[in-house]
């Protein structure tokens, strides 16, 4: 907080951002490290993204926090798909953010389907491994060492659980590759399943229906077009919305923000640095 008690406008100049080398990258998983330079507390609105997000708090005194639906969590958290209006931030410190595409999240977390719409303490998902991971990552000498440790942990978690059905994984990849432009019937035909079976397996394994996933992928594309400076009308057309009003309704539904506010959201302003397009 500022001396007068008001929250400051977010400025990424306060923050050092680290990204992993190719050797530490995993399919369907992206990581970025954030370290605050300035001793200030602030929060920013998160913008819906087609991933389950882990925030591992590496500060000394639970400097990170998330707030959604009138509930606030301090320290390391897991944020499921579609959390609604969500704010993240806190006191100056360090944090490792991990984005898990739903297929990867199902393997890493197991309970990813139950996380939809929620932000919960990471310990609720990983148990004692959460505290152990925090301690090991906090003690690491560099961000490169931290990414190596995190990648090893994620590999172990992935190998301990059965993968989602190949048909479900294929349907997710197609949905992400063509946001808002795939139909459930078409996906079902591609994998040789009935529409009902695909809908049921997709929802139970990824925690989201195919239709909702398509809406989220389409909104993610629109949000990045808005952040890149495109007018809302152009972003709507290029993302497959019927018109600008349609985009406005979806922006409010997913984030509680207007397209104008999404365009100015600090959450998206760092994307090209923290989440290079080759990783998305």
TrEMBL record:
Residues 166-265 form the HTH araC/xylS-type domain. The keyword Transcription regulation applies. GO terms for molecular function: DNA-binding transcription factor activity; sequence-specific DNA binding. Keywords: DNA-binding, Transcription, Transcription regulation. It holds the Pfam family HTH_18. Gene3D superfamilies: Homeodomain-like (1.10.10.60). PANTHER family: BLL1074 PROTEIN, HTH-TYPE TRANSCRIPTIONAL ACTIVATOR RHAS-RELATED. This is AraC-like DNA-binding protein. It comes from Actinomadura livida.
């Amino acid at each position: 907080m500022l001396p007068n008690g008001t929250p400051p406008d977010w400025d990424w100049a306060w923050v050092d951002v680290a990204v992993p080398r190719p050797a530490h990258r995993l399919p369907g998983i992206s990581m970025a490290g954030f370290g605050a330079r300035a001793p200030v507390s602030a929060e920013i609105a998160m913008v819906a993204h087609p991933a389950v997000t882990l925030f591992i708090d590496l500060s000394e005194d639970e400097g990170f926090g998330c707030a959604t639906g009138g509930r606030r969590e301090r320290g390391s958290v897991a944020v499921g798909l579609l959390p609604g209006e969500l704010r993240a931030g806190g006191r100056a410190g360090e944090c490792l953010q991990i984005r898990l595409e739903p297929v990867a999240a199902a393997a890493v977390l197991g309970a990813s389907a139950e996380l939809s719409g929620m932000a919960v303490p990471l310990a609720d998902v990983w148990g004692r491994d959460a505290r152990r991971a925090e301690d090991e990552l906090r003690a690491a000498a560099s961000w490169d060492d931290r990414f190596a440790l995190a990648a090893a942990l994620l590999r172990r978690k992935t190998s301990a659980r059965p993968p989602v059905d190949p048909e479900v994984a294929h349907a997710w990849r197609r949905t992400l590759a063509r946001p808002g432009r795939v139909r459930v019937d078409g996906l079902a035909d591609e994998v040789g399943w009935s529409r009902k079976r695909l809908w049921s397996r997709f929802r139970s394994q990824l925690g989201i229906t195919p239709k909702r996933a398509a809406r989220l992928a389409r909104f993610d594309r629109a949000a990045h077009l808005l952040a890149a400076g495109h007018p809302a009308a152009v972003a709507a057309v290029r993302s497959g919305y019927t018109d600008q009003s349609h985009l406005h309704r979806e922006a409010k539904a997913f984030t509680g923000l207007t397209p104008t506010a999404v365009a100015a959201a600090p959450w998206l302003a760092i994307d090209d640095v923290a989440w290079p397009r080759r990783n998305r």
